[in-house]
Amino acid sequence: MLLPVLISNITKLNTTAADSSHNAMYKTPFHASDLSKSAFLVTGGAGFIGSNIVEYLVRFGAGKIRILDNLSTGFKANIEPFLSLTNVEFMQGDICNADTCNAACEGIDFISHQAALGSVPRSVANPLATHQVNVDGFLNMLIAARDAGVKRFVYASSSSVYGDSPIMPKKEAQIGNPLSPYAVSKLSDELYAGVFSLNYGMKIIGLRYFNVFGPRQNPAGAYAAAIPLFMDAMTSDKTTVIYGDGEQTRDFTFVENAVQANIRSVFAPEKSCGLVYNVATGMSVSVNDLYANLKTLLQSNLAPEYRPERKGEVKNSLADISLANDKLQYQPTVHLAEGLSETVKWFQEYKSSIKV
To answer: Cα-atom radius of gyration of the chain, to the nearest Å?
Structure first.
């Protein structure tokens, strides 16, 4: 009975998050254009980052918002409060189906492509599934967007493409060898995007996300990210597991910054297209320090359990965000302390709403 309980709890979590709309978020627009005259497609729009992009578009009056999601890792509850709106349409479908992609792109001006099968450990366990969604599905979307005459295609890449490069901070032009099937899939997306820009004149922008966290990030499942896992363990009196010695560093990026990068990319000058940009804060923290910050916020005294590091994981990660700042006018508005505080607040609302 564990799985139904987890699903029920996650549904409550996401409904709470969507209903509250977190008044601290998205107060200031990241665009200057009139959104009411444009049609947007958000793939993976019921997922963590995708649903936050949908919320932004709803809040600022986008003319049409189509959400495509197969609900394999996303939750309809993330977008439930928006589905009654006349400008919002939900399509349950899979990007691995070319016909579905073609239908989703019909009448669309701008695409924010967030649909993917995430997680480095998941990709090591099942590389074929990762390839099918992240590469074959991505190619389906590119072809559909090309054939539909979409004006701008913005897609999610990953900091994992830097692989074994020792260079710090990470600069877009200096990558190493991928360390996981997930990294290979995201690097493949970047290569396909470049080829489609070159051969078909498509206006495409890629965004290399660095450890995005925030409201609506799923804390359940074998492949949950560190921050929701830590919060869940601390608030459930369970032992937190840290892989490695905890001294590995990450450029943790609050989800509002990722939303900003997507919106700015949609409306960036054409000369900014054809490139991939780091989306991060330009500051890093060790996993041990992150854990200590969460302990303070959640008033926890639990000590973590350290286990051997996992295959495919990058040791250290810190982004140079100067290119995104120059070409997209991207500037992170929420840094780690504020982002953690907002995320903890959301998670505590979720915990208080659960009665198992």
So the answer is: 19
